[in-house]
Each structure stands twice: as C-alpha cells, then as structure tokens.
Automatic annotation (TrEMBL):
The gene is trappc9. Residues 892-985 form the Trs120/TRAPPC9 third Ig-like domain. PANTHER family: TRAFFICKING PROTEIN PARTICLE COMPLEX SUBUNIT 9. This is Trafficking protein particle complex subunit 9. It is found in: Golgi apparatus.
C-alpha cells in the first residue's frame, strides 16, 4: 500500500468501506450529484437492534489498498455501488458485463453490490432485481437513499455473520494466519504446529474479531478483543499486528470518549443514538483496566448481567493512555519499511485526537515524525496532498506558521519542474492560504497599526512568489497589486538594491497594466483591497495655507451675520464648549475664496536611495466642488523633509475638507487618505470657502523695495516700494489700481500708518486725493484707475550733541548761550577736536534715517461683499532719509520793536553737495559741503494764546507730559510756517525745487518764551504816532509833545492797577547816559502815569505831555514803580518800546 488516506481518523475504524464508481460513460456532474446523495447515508440504524452501522464512501480506491483488508477491516471494500447510463435495451448486456467485471476487481472482499442504471426504460427496466435499480433519468430517482439503506442493511447482515463465525469459533480447528501482502513470502516454510505460531494466529484473529465488532457497533466487545490481542501478540513479538491491535484499542477508546468525532468541523459525526449512557461513563485518567473473558460474551453481544457492562466500560483507555498507545503502535509500525502508509495514517489519527485534547506540543511531535516517514516514490499530486494535509493538521493544533510553511511547500510542488503543465492557479491559491500563518494580510491598513508583525524576510519572499505566480497565471493586474503591496508594506526592510529591483519590476508591469485604486475580486470571491503608496513619498505633515496677504478675506466689523441669533447668552457654557470641541480642533480659522487658487503644503520625504518622480500629485477633497490642479515633482534621493505645495480652485462656497492626496508613482495611482495616516501631523483639514471677491493689482511708479519690512502690527505687506530722499524733500508716488478678477470692485478705501520708526515725523508723511478714483467705481474687470500719493519727509533738523561740541568756538555768547563760528573752525581746525573731513566724523553727521509706512487699500464687491467680506491690499513705503541741513544752535536777539525779535540759526550742511538755504524775506545763504553758517531772521513775535486749547475733558485724562509736548509742537508748527525756511541742492537736476526745513525740533523753552508775544501789549504814541522799531519822533523845541501810553490785556486775568514813571535821558553813544535833564526837559503835569485794573481783552490809555526846551536827541525810559501791584507778573510782560524823540530848533536857518 503506497497511497495513504490523509483524511483518515480514529472513528473510521468502525466504518465499512463502500466504493461508488461509474460504469461506462457517465457525465461527471451527474455522477457526483448521485454520489452526494448516496454519501448522505453515512450511518444506518439497524432494525431490531440498538446498533448503528457507519459507512465510509469512496469514489476512487486502489485495489492494492484492498489487500490490507485483513490487517484492518475498515480498509476492506465490502460494498460496491456502480452508476451507469443505458439508453436502450441493446446496450444493457454490455452494461451488465461491465458491472460484473468491476465487481471482479473487489470480489475477494465484497459483501454485496448494487448497480444504478439511469435512462433505460422498457421490459428490462420493469424487472424486479435486488442488485439493480432502474431510473428514467438522473432527475427522476426519488428512492436512491432508500435503496442505499437496504444495501447497507444487507452488508450488515454479512458483517454480523462473519463476526459471529469468528467470535464463537471454539472448535479445535486450526486458526488461519492472517497476513499483510508483504508477509506472505516470509511465512513460507514456517512450522505451523509450534506454540509461537498458534499464538500469533490467535492474536491476529483476536485483533481481526475486534475490528469486526467495532464495525458491527459492539464497542465494548471490540475493546475486550483488542486487549486480548495485545497480550497475545506482545508475547510473540508480532510487532506489526501488535501495533494494529494497539491502534484498534485506541480507536475504540477514542470513539467512546469523543462520540462527536475527531475529523474536525467538516467531517464530524453525530453522536451515536445507542451510546448516550456510555458517553457519560468516560474513563477517568488513571483508571485501572479490567479485562473480561470473551467466554462471557453472548452470541448477540448483549449480556444480561449489568455488572458485566460496568466492567466493559473500564476496558476503555483514558485520554492520556490513548496517546501513549498510539506512540507505541507507531513505534512498532516504524520497524517495517512496507508499513509506512500505516504509520503515517496512525500519526495523522493521533494528531487529530491530540487536537481535540488541545495538546498541541505533543501533536507537533507526531506530525514531525510523519514528515520523515519515507513512502517511496510519490507522484507530484501525492506530494501536494501530503503537504496540504500536514499544513491543515498544523493549523488545527495552532501552529500557524508551521502550517503556512507546509502550505507553501505544497504550493511550490504544484509548479515543480517535473510537472509538464504547472498548476499556477493552484499554486497561487495555496500561497494565499499561507498568508495568515506568516502574519501577513493583503490589506495595507493592517500594517499601519503599531509595530510590524511577523518575519519580514519570509513575508517578502512570499509576496515575491505571489507576484511571480500571478504573472504566470496571465494576470498582470494581480502582479501589480501584490508588488505595490510589497513596496508599500515592506519598504523599511528592503535594501537599497532590492528597492531598485522592485521598482524596476513594478514599472515594467505597469507599462502594460497600470495600477489603480479599484478592488480586485478573485474567482473564489476573495477581494484584494487597493494599495495606496503612502510611503512614496512619505508625508510628515499637511498644512492648509492661508491665501496670500493681498487675497485674504476680512469680515466687515459690525456685521455678525446670522450666527448672532444662535450665540449663548451666558459668558461660559460647558455644554456648548464640549459640543464644539471637535469642530474647533479641525476647522481652521481662516477662509478660502471661491474661484481663487488655494494651497496646501505637504512636508514630504523620499525614502528611496534614488530620485523619486511623482507624475501626478493632487488634492482629495469633500464638500464643495473643487478643481484640483495636479503637480509633477521630482524628489532627490533620501531628500529629508521637502516642502511640496498642492493647489486647487474651489468652484462653490461652503465648507471644504481636505481628505487626502492622490499620486501616481511607478505607474500606480494612489489615493492616500489622511484619516488612515496616523503619523501625519495636521493643524486641521476643514476650511470655509466664502463667495467670490474681486482682485486688485497694484503697480507703482517707484521701484520695489529691496528692504524687508517688519511692521509692528500683525499685518503683512503685499508689496513695497523704496525711495531715498533728503530730509524735507517731497516725492510723488503714482499708483495704478487694476481689477484683475472677475468681480466688479464696488467699494474702495485708503488709509495709511507709519510703522517701526523711532524718529519723530513733522507734518503729514503721506497724503492723497481719493475723490477722483472713487468716482470711477464700480471698476469693471480689466479696468484700472490711477492715484497719486505725496511722500513728504520732514524729520528733526536739530544737530547732534557731539556736533555741537565740535562747533563751539572761543566763547562768544548771545543771550547767555555760546555762539559758534564753524566756518573759521573748518578752515583752521583745532588739533584737540575732530575734523569734519575725517571719515568717522562724516559718518556720524550723515547718518541715514529710515521711515516706513503702510498704505492700506480696502476694497470689495460681488457676492462676497453681500456676505460682509472685503480684501485688503497693503503697500509698504520705505524711505531712506538722508540729512539735508542741521540747525546746530538756535538763539534769539531782541529787535528794536517789542513785537519783534531776531532768530539766530547756526545751519550746518552735512551733505557732500553745495546747499542754498532761504527764509522768508531773507537773502539766500549758500553753504558748501560740511560748512556751518549763521542766519539771522527777523520775525514778529507770536501770539501762542490764540492756538486752540484742549478741552477740559481731554486735559483731565491725558498725561501732562504729553499735553506739554503737543503744546510745544503746535507752537513750533506756527513758528515754522512763518519762517518758511527752504533748502535746495544747487548741483542737482531738480534746480530751484525748494525743499522745506523745519525748526520745530530745535526750539527750546527759552527760545519759545523769547518768541512769544507778551500777554500785555504796550503801545507808546508821541503826538499820536506810534514809537517803535527805531522810529524817531520829530518835534520842535518849545512845543508841547503829547505822550500816550496804551495797555492791551491779552491775558486771562485782570491786570493792575499799575504806576508808570517817565524818565528822559540822553545817550552819548559811548556808554555814558545823562539823566540830569532838569533844565532841558520839563513835564506838563506829572511824569507818573496811573493805570487802573484792566480786564482781559480790554485796553487802558493814560495821557501826558512834556516840553523840550533845547533841540537834541532825547530818549524816554518808562519804568514801573516798585510798589506797583503788578510786580508778581513776569518781567517780560512789562517790556515797553523805547522812545526816541528828536527835538528840532524852532527857528529854521536863514536861506534854508
């Protein structure tokens, strides 16, 4: 016997073997249809008995295996059912002859046979025969099962008779020696009368009777016979049959302990109806075996003594003893080379029992022994079957990886080189079945969870074999899918050379059959999920980018929309916060705009050792309609993190979710979803798309700035311009605003703001007129409008402290402050001081200052304007301010008029050019490079009280220091407007384009006081004419001169009463003044004037007269008396104009 039955199990020992075979030509499908119905009759309850007969059907059985029927009776073919077709009566004789010929094959063992004839009708079909059944067709055969029942009963009758013949034979007849085929030649010439021979014959027969009892449903009798056979055969060292007796004892015990069977779920049997009591009496481990004398058995096997039944139950082996006896039996089988099949089948049966007992470790030992059993030359099909069964058994005991190993060996055997037509489909199917054993799943999602499971090297080998098998099957799509799966899941375990080889193979496959994201369904119904290349390239982070600064939408303040109605009236509500938590963590706080290009930045990494080309990479979205604009990129080898920006255009408004991205790498299209990529960092994927807005493009007449502006606010600049101006210079900036969007611009606003400057700016830095541009609205798509902005820089013109020190001269002073003579200083520099010609000096005095401002355009239109959105376009203005002139010192000198004074300015030219400086009603002053000169300007004093004052509310809540600064700034502006100081660089092309200079930053408090018009204004009139500004009043000696003193109170309080004394004197212009003029000047009346209290904004006049007795130049000094009530007021308030009177001779010269 060379072909083992790997499906054998211990309970098969109690079955009788029936072969079902076709005779002649029978359609295969029809044959198996009838075979299935026949095999459904697997157990038959014998009438007039409590026993069951179990039947095992085979449609193919080798006659040589039948020769082992005496060794184990369940291997003996005892029944034959033939199926044939017969169309006419003429064919019947030939059919009957074939049936008899078929019976001859198994004639030595057959108990009974049947022939089922389909298609024959007529007289022959109407004949009543027990061994032949006629049916009109395969569909019209309702009683097949009934005939099989009758057939099985007839077999039982023969079986029972044989059992009784052997069991009750107590005569002195010689017992025949039962042999296996290979033993017959060994027993030729043996002494048949020896005791050893007789014991061997008795032991073998006992074992044979035990087989018959087991088949006949007499379990306890079988146990007794097996025990006796074991004892007899052990005594004569008949190891082959001793092993068979032990195996029979094990099988009977297994049937007792496990009535459900050991074949597994698919081949399990129903518990015997006659054995429910026995099933409850299973032998406990360690129970003692009690042997019963077979003489106590009755003819029908049923004893009237119940105590004997109890004894029979004790003959059953315990579950542990079953395995030990199996081991012993297999060891005996191993002594015989020709018993390899028996040994192998015994191992398989033991493993099935151990699987039920959940003793996997011991079961693996039996299987390991089965692997090494040599069965001689097996065909390829037999090898495949052997390895498949080994795999199945390893699977049953939980050795999944071992099971997968043998399944893979079976798969490789399907395509062995010795097979003329390799079975690649069978190979592929078996390989698929090995995947779970190697912790390998064809779903990529299983590899994204935690650490890698299984042996990567084995898994890669298996995947390579799947790729090759699918290619040999002629299914390139399957090859692409498996190769893609290999590359995606095993990338970390591939060497650089392997990565290169795999990708080259993949490109070769995809050139014929591109890979996609569709699910591949195999013929057996297995579905292969799509494989997305999430590692080619690897994406580390996904970040939705805000629109460029100039395109970002802004919500109009005050328009809260409909959300206001759903807002909670509570300051804090934990329920609302909880409900909105998920949305907050995903929704992004900026918006995209319908119709505008939106960007998503991916940080990607190329893990391959060579350049990776991604042919088609775009975004996957859900929500609003979105047009993805795919990109192609090439990543260098092992690039590290590399930013990739994917773009698209939302076509409708609403909420859009970026769900992932799609790629095309090596010919495989992948849809990579973010929800399956736990390692990808993202700040959110949901963003709101608002309705469309217009787009404004800005172009300027000035060059773009090379400086990077750093505004203090959070806003960013759309663009910037740069210009270099001298301090005080004005530049025009022409802006062209063009509508490059599809929506009309319906509103436009322009504001400006100075940012990031430490310098104080005087005057208006940026100014414009917007009315003309607004009149052009709405601005259609493609239209443009022009706007002019004036850039006027006016910073502090005051010189630095170090500059003042270098310009000090020998100590000449005016009003207590030193006056410099820089021209002489430059021509003859002092050795202890720095010269202006040195590089350090120039750098210090020609420091370039920077001014930065932002022009902000707000515009809107279209559907976005209806929703309350607008856009802002920011233009940065960067101005480098070079110094033009410095006012290094400022002083005042009194003028001849009390309402005027002289302003002295020391002007320094820090530039390398020749400057011309002019002031109101003054001659131009030319300054050479690094030259300093003084300019004296006569100015009218200023009435600072007329400047607007802050109201009481503002004054109360404002810092006093700030109020003082604002007051000084207002005074300086008024002074600066009157001075009108301008400068011009003579050598420039823009000749006579005067730029203004400002003295606001150099005026100190003392100078301001000198320039301020006193609140008490004094007017002195001589003969009705005012005396001021060196005006000489003429009069005649001897004539009375009218003197009038007028006080105008411009202060906020009343002034007076005051007393004034008029003292005349003469000035000899040599430092000597003569006050002793009693005989030259006389007063008509008193020389003291009294002024009563003068209320604010009122005037008071006092009148007197004096008489000059001699001609000459006289001066009047008007003094306040010491006891005057106005002495607490500032002295500057009581400055009266000097009075110069020239008395002429009354008689003109003769002839004049």
């Amino acid at each position: 016997m060379s072909v083992p039955d790997y499906m054998q199990c211990a309970e098969d020992h109690q079955t009788v073997l029936v072969v079902v075979q076709p005779v002649g030509i029978v359609p295969e499908d029809q044959f198996f249809k009838i075979y299935k119905r026949i095999s459904s009759v697997s157990q038959v309850s014998i009438r007039d008995s409590q026993r069951l007969l179990y039947i095992r059907y085979r449609h193919h059985y080798l006659p040589e295996n039948n020769e082992w029927g005496d060794f184990q009776t369940h291997r003996k073919v005892v029944g034959l059912i033939s199926i044939t077709t017969c169309a006419s009566a003429k064919e019947w004789p030939q059919t009957a002859e074939r049936f008899h010929a078929q019976k001859e094959v198994y004639s030595s063992t057959l108990y009974d046979s049947r022939l089922l004839v389909f298609g024959l009708q007529g007289d022959i079909a109407e004949q009543q025969r027990t061994d032949v059944a006629f049916y009109p067709s395969f569909e019209d055969c309702p009683d097949v099962e009934k005939r099989v029942d009758d057939f099985v009963e007839s077999i039982f009758i023969v079986l029972e008779s044989k059992r009784l013949d052997r069991a009750t034979d107590k005569s002195g007849d010689k017992i025949p020696l039962l042999c296996v085929p290979f033993e017959k030649k060994d027993f030729v010439g043996l002494d048949t009368d020896s005791r050893h021979y007789k014991k061997r014959c008795q032991g073998r027969m006992r074992k044979h009777v035990g087989d018959l009892c087991l088949q006949a449903g007499m379990l306890q009798d079988a146990l007794v016979h097996y025990h006796m056979a074991v004892e007899l055969l052990r005594g004569v060292n008949d190891f082959l049959w001793l092993g068979a007796a032990l195996e029979g004892l094990c099988s009977a015990s297994v049937i007792f302990h496990y009535p459900g069977g050991t074949a597994g779920k698919t081949a399990g049997r129903k518990p015997s109806i006659s054995q429910p009591a026995d099933a409850g009496k299973r032998h406990r481990p360690g129970a003692q075996e009690v042997l019963i004398d077979p003489g106590a058995l009755t003819a029908n096997g049923i004893s009237a003594d119940t105590s004997t039944e109890i004894g029979r139950a004790k003959n059953c082996l315990s579950p542990e003893d079953i395995i030990e006896k199996y081991k012993e039996a297999i060891s005996y089988y191993g002594k015989y080379k020709n018993a390899g099949v028996i040994e192998l089948e015994a191992c398989v049966k033991a493993v099935r029992v151990l699987a039920i007992q959940k003793r996997a470790r011991e079961a693996s030992e039996f299987l390991q022994n089965a692997v090494y059993i040599n069965l001689g030359q097996l065909s390829e099909e037999e090898k495949i079957q052997r390895y498949s069964i080994l795999s199945e058994l390893y699977e049953r005991i939980g050795f999944h990886r071992k099971s997968a190993f043998f399944k893979r060996v079976a798969a490789m055997q399907c395509v062995a080189p010795t097979i003329p037509e390799p079975g690649w489909r069978a190979c592929y199917k078996l390989l698929l079945e090995t995947l779970p054993g190697y912790s390998l799943s064809l779903d990529p999602k299983d590899f994204s969870k935690g650490t890698h499971r299984g042996w990567a090297a084995v898994q890669m080998r298996l995947l390579h074999e799947l790729v090759y098998a699918s290619r040999r099957m002629g299914n390139p799509a399957l090859s692409v899918r498996h190769l893609s799966f290999l590359l995606q899941t095993m990338l970390d375990f591939l060497s650089d050379q392997e990565k290169k080889e795999v990708t080259q193979s993949l490109e070769n496959y995809t050139s014929k059959c591109p890979g996609g994201m569709e699910v591949i369904t195999l013929p057996d119904g297995l579905k292969l999920p799509p494989v997305a290349f999430t590692k080619l390239p690897i994406v580390r982070s996904v970040k939705l980018l805000n629109l460029p600064v100039s395109l970002r939408p802004h919500k109009v303040k005050g328009l809260l929309g409909q959300n206001m109605s759903t807002a909670s009236p509570f300051i804090y509500s934990p329920i609302i916060m909880h409900n909105r938590g998920e949305e907050r963590c995903k929704k992004i706080d900026f918006q995209w705009v319908q119709g505008d290009v939106c960007e998503v930045q991916l940080m990607v990494y190329n893990p391959m050792p060579y350049e990776l080309r991604v042919e088609n990479m775009g975004l996957l979205t859900s929500g609003v309609e979105f047009e993805s604009l795919p990109a192609a990129l090439s990543l260098p080898a092992e690039s590290g993190l590399y930013p990739v920006t994917l773009v698209g255009v939302p076509r409708t408004a609403g909420n859009i979710t970026v769900t992932g991205y799609h790629t095309s790498v090596f010919g495989v299209t992948s849809d990579c979803l973010l929800e399956g990529l736990s390692s990808v960092k993202t700040s959110g994927s949901l963003v709101e798309v608002i309705p469309s807005l217009p787009r404004l493009q800005l172009s300027t007449s000035l060059p773009r700035s090379a400086h990077t502006s750093q505004p203090t606010s959070k806003e960013e600049l759309s663009s910037s311009v740069s210009v270099q101006l001298f301090n005080g210079e004005t530049q025009q900036l022409t802006l062209t605003l063009e509508n490059i969007g599809s929506e009309d611009i319906e509103s436009l606003e322009l504001t400006s703001k100075i940012v990031s400057t430490k310098e104080k700016v005087f005057g208006e830095f940026l100014s414009w007129e917007l009315e003309d541009a607004l009149s052009r609205l709405p601005l259609k798509s493609g239209q443009a409008v022009t706007l002019t902005v004036n850039i006027k820089v006016k910073l502090d013109f005051s010189g630095q402290e170090s500059l003042l020190q270098d310009l000090n001269d020998d100590g000449l002073s005016v009003t207590g402050l030193p006056i410099s003579s820089p021209l002489r200083q430059l021509l003859k520099p002092r050795p202890e001081n720095k010269t202006f010609g040195s590089e350090s000096g120039k750098a210090e005095y020609s420091h370039i200052k920077t001014l930065e401002a932002v022009l902000n355009f707000k515009y809107s239109g279209g559907a976005g304007k209806v929703e309350g959105y607008h856009r802002e376009l920011s233009l940065g203005v960067h101005v480098d301010v070079e110094p033009s002139v410095f006012f290094t010192r400022v002083n005042t000198l009194p003028a001849t008029s009390t309402r005027q004074c002289h302003l002295l300015l020391d002007i320094f030219n820090p530039t390398e050019h020749e400057l011309s400086v002019s002031a109101e009603n003054n001659q131009d002053l030319v300054l050479h490079a690094s030259e300093c000169q003084r300019m004296a300007i006569q100015v009218d004093k200023f009435d600072f009280e007329s400047l607007p004052q802050p109201d009481q509310e503002t004054a109360r809540f404002t810092n006093p220091k700030q109020l003082e600064e604002e007051r000084q700034y207002a005074q300086g502006s008024q002074i600066n407007s009157k001075l009108g100081i301008c400068w011009s660089i003579i050598s420039f092309q823009r000749v006579h384009v005067w730029s203004k200079a400002s003295v606001e930053g150099v005026l100190n408090q003392l100078v301001l006081e000198h320039l301020q018009l006193a609140p008490l204004q004094w007017d002195v009139l001589v003969n009705g004419k005012p005396c001021d500004c060196d005006v000489i009043a003429d009069c005649k000696a001897g004539d009375a001169v009218a003197l009038e003193v007028q006080l105008t109170n411009r202060s906020k309080n009343s002034v007076g009463p005051l007393a004034l004394t008029v003292v005349p004197y003469q000035d000899f212009q040599n430092g000597v003044q003569n006050y002793d003029l009693g005989d030259a000047v006389t007063f008509i009346g008193s020389n003291t004037f009294f002024i009563d209290a003068v209320k604010p904004k009122e005037s008071s006049v006092c009148v007197g007269a004096l008489l000059f007795l001699y001609p000459g130049d006289f001066y009047l000094n008007i003094k306040f008396q010491d006891d005057s009530a106005g002495r607490e007021l500032p002295l500057a308030w009581f400055t009266l104009p000097s009075v110069h009177i020239r008395a002429l001779d009354a008689q003109p010269l003769a002839g004049a």
